[in-house]
Design brief:
Calcium-transporting ATPase, cytoplasmic transduction domain A; Rossmann fold; elongated; ATP hydrolysis activity; phosphoprotein; P-type calcium transporter activity; translocase; P-type Ca(2+) transporter
Amino acid sequence: MNWHELGQTDLVKTANTSIEHGLSSKEAKKRLDLHGYNELNEGKKTSSLALFFSQFNDFMVFVLVAATIISGFLGEYVDAAAIIAIILVNGILGFFQERRAENSLQALKELSTPQTLVLREKKWMKIQARELVPGDIIKFSSGDRIGADIRLFDAKSLEIEESALTGESVPVQKQYDPIQANAESLGDLVNMGFMGTLVTRGSGSGVVIGTGMNTAMGKIAHMLEEAGTQQTPLQGRLEQLGKILIVIALLLTVLVVSVGVLQGQNLFQMFLAGVSLAVAAIPEGLPAIVTVALSLGVQRMIKQKSIVRKLPAVETLGCASIICSDKTGTMTQNKMTVTHVWTCGSLWEVTGTGYEPEGEFTANGRPVQVKQNKALQQILLFGALCNSSAIVSEKGKYRLEGDPTEGALLTAASKAGFYSEKIKEQYKIIEEYPFDSARKMMTVIVEDLQNKRFVITKGAPDVLLKKSTCILANNKNEAMSKTRYEEANTSIADLASRALRTIAIAYKPLTGSEIPSVEQAESGLTFFGIQGMMDPPRPEVKQAIKECREAGIKTVMITGDHVITAKAIAKKLNLLPNKGKVIEGQALNKLSVEELAETVEDTYVFARVTPEHKLKIVKAFQEKGHIVAMTGDGVNDAPAIKQADIGISMGITGTDVAKESSSLILVDDNFATIKSAIKEGRNIYENIRKFVRYLLASNVGEILVMLFAMLLALPLPLVPIQILWVNLVTDGLPAMALGMDQPESDVMNRKPRHTKEGIFARGLGWKVVSRGFLIGAVTLAAFMIIYYRNPDNLQYAQTIAFATLVLAQLIHVFDCRSERSIFHRNPFGNLYLIGAVLSSLLLMLVVIYYKPLQPVFHTMDIAAVDWLLVIGLSAIPTFLLAGSLLTRKN
């Protein structure tokens, strides 16, 4: 139903109501039973218990559980207990990081006004907004929130702030006449009001035409329920890795058992050996180390003013290829600011942004003294006098109480030294005729200290120009000639072409004490000039977009604002290239997600969009294989934020809905913080690659030493508990320390990783196999040397193999810090790693020399002379390959 097209008679008839009487109590009850309460559906909430158990819904965890069951079945209870401990640590870490459940729908509900003034049986009464029904007659005034979707039938100077729904920062001037407009573009429906929006000026009445989920807010709530959550690239790669490892483990088990049986070995012993190999193939500590690495990244990001709500999202940032950003409040400050002032013959530019009284006036790039220019003085002073808003200072910060346009006028005046407090002492407002959409003007009658009275009017420039018979030129009043009229008109068009919102100021002196009517006051005016304003870009955004572009990340602006404004801001930010496309919301209505996906690559600005459009845009980029980051601060951004691979909301200006739908919150509302977060995300992934390389090379070494020993009909060089100790404890600390490595200098000069890039890409697989092969070879060599020296002392040979394996891995960890040679990195560049390696060495010595632990780990004291063998063999894998790499590079 296109309610905005109906006249009052058709409106009342269609809604089956009465403007004079309202609904009867009986009819209201009937409609309440039919439509339900005026509230949003609550999604099913995740219990703490369910959230905790969800942490274990991971393929790698399933693999570990299988290993636990097998170890327990074979009587290896220490092994089983160790694996269970790792699983629990991983689950607890994830649980506490994601403890805050998503409360998007609850936050939406809180935007609804608790009480509303409604007409029932000819009486105005206050009721709970949840009890409103279609057909109710409600009224409201400045400061109220609209309780349901309504069609206006009365509006007096009514302005409603709808940025949470539409993204537009300027309150919408409302009227009640029928209009022809696109029903999908909420910002164009000037005779409608929407649930949860705020009345900033005037008053009005309307018929309720939608409640609960049948409102614009309800549509967003419905989209939030439907918006999917994306599996992160890291989750996908680790799941893929887990599947590969379990297949390898199963094949090795079958191979070993088969070879052993063919050799005439005991079946149970061979099965135990196979399980040992399976344990060696699976890096049991990997899930916990990944979780810890992500958590450490979260802590670093907090210091950089960003809060992570969903742990895996940290890594997702690192491969973001598209940033879809809301304009208002994200790229811009959401603070209207006067940037240009025109009076006949002169154009001034105004510096400074926001509501701080800091800035200067320039002409042709040179500073000017306001006190030396009467026309500039008066237009600024009159803009502050014809004003019903206020700028309030609290602890050095300035905030607006009232209309953003008026806030811009007040701030411009304060930059010239005209402060509200001083103005009120010198001028008295005798009468005020508020702004309304019919007149498009606001007028005040002012009296100064000399008891002189005069009219000040501000409003739409084209309207004021027609009402003016004179114009201020060269600091004198001149009759409004055709030439002057055209000059003013040209200036209005010029400022509008710069995407500036323009407000004209006019004046008229009064004689006598009689207060003129509004018609008398707003005629025969002297046109003073125009103030042009805009919601300025955040100063840091331009550089952030540039750095993102250098990192291979495209930034796209998505806004509910007009095309001209959006293009102007995009050009100021160097976001829109010369051949870049701009698409309006009406065009989006005609395109499916698949059709839109064919054009998004060349599109940089989407204007006049609805929440549905934002969701469609995000899906279209995802259809093209992009990892999408969506930023925003309003209710209208929430569904797209939730659908995106990484949803980012603003911490200060962001609504609760946007925050609860997001994965990342920018504490300082700074778009540039996204760049820092992406850098951290990339570094985290590179660090994960480092410790995956380290852990898997270690595992390959363990597999090969066990496999070759079996093929050579040798005893097992390592027992399962030793392998578990190496995987979980000895390897764990250095791996975690690798996760704390600082980013390399060129990390933001690389293009984003492709979503299909495997974790072994860029030569990582070769490094794992080659290093692992050498680690296994030297470990087996150490075992064989000692075993053949004294075949009766198997436990001592196993201890030597254990020490060689651990030491070889601890030396190898320094090679894992970079893709380049170990000789090109400062070994002391990561002090955490130094500490971790020393700790692991100490733990190894404790296991070898501490008598109570020797029976548990099947170890013995190592003679001093045999340490020379252990150290010499352990250094070979790292320095042999690193030396050959350096020689090849030279």
